[in-house]
Amino acid sequence: MTKYERFVANVKLRRWVVLLSLVIVLWLVRSVMSTILLTFIFSFLVTRLIRLIRRRVHLPAMVVVVPLYLLIIAGMAYAVIHYVPAVVAQTIHLVNSVSDFYNSKAFANNKAMQWVVQAANQMNLNEQIKTSVTALLQYAGSLTAMGVTLVLSLILSFFFSIEIDELMRFGRNFTNSTFGWYFQDVTYFAKKFIDSFGVVIEAQLFIALVNTAITTVTLIFLKMPNIPSLAVMVLLLSLIPVAGALISVVPLAIIAYTVSGWQGVLTIIIMIIVIHLLETYVLNPKFMSSRTKLPVFFTFVVLMAGDWLFGTWGLIVGIPIFTFILDLLGVKKLPDTKKTPPAKAAPTK
């Protein structure tokens, strides 16, 4: 046997080389990692839905995917039409209220407020405010980029899901090619990662429901308007680990100010802090642990390490990657992973 034939026949060594090549490829495309991960998540959820429906009724993928994405587009359009003008109007009202109070006689005659103004001038807060405004504009730009990434991921996942059957048939051509062993190993790793990723998605859906329930109760207490619509918005944002709760504080605080003033804003901020702590230190470790069958300590450490290494995305992919590595090392087998027979060596000429 040649060195190449011996390498192909050595399944363990070959798979580690393939895994290393995948890591290198992902590192090279790290600048578009958000698009890749969002496309993967959307495609994963939609294909799961397609398989769930096909267990009872065999339907073409188009029949399931097209109505689903039309519903998603309609929901996004409804949010833009109804929420954006309301948030803008309430933001203008908030700015005008602060401006009127600043120019009022009550402010001018209030010794405490004048002392605060003098202290602010002594601390040279003008430069700090300019820096904060610049950071805010940069953040707004990142939100715009995130919106573009979201739309692009939805488009890519739509075409992937609608052509799932054709893509599966096309993918078999790679596994039967001259270098079929490489693509067979890629498929082997992909199945393992998808199995571990599924439990994380289920956990995040449960956490999103808990966050939405707590937020909805608080909104009812504050007598906020359009509670069903706000609950849907919170549910969608809660699907974003940790960051979703922080993003939702902006529109909720603005609306709360128009209803209850600064007391409502303070209540919303306290609620978001409680939800953030509950999600980070209770729900994520405990529920992730019950779904992945990992000790709570390991789950908690992996979530912190994932957040430190990859930011918010680390909270999504940290547990699947850790479970995936444990499975590869033979420390802990994934319960849903089907045993894949060793790939046969491709014939060489």
UniProtKB/TrEMBL annotation:
Top-level division of the source organism's lineage: Bacteria
Lipid bilayer topology: Multi-pass membrane protein
GO BP terms: transmembrane transport
UniProt keywords, alphabetically: Membrane, Transmembrane, Transmembrane helix
GO cellular component: membrane
UniProt xrefs under InterPro entries: AI-2E-like
Subcellular location: Membrane
The keyword Ribonucleoprotein is annotated on this UniProt entry: no
Pfam families attached to this UniProt entry: AI-2E_transport
TM ranges: 16-47, 59-81, 139-162, 203-222, 234-259, 265-284, 296-326
Keyword Membrane: yes
Protein family membership: Belongs to the autoinducer-2 exporter (AI-2E) (TC 2.A.86) family.
Annotated protein name in UniProt: Permease
Organism name: Lacticaseibacillus camelliae DSM 22697 = JCM 13995
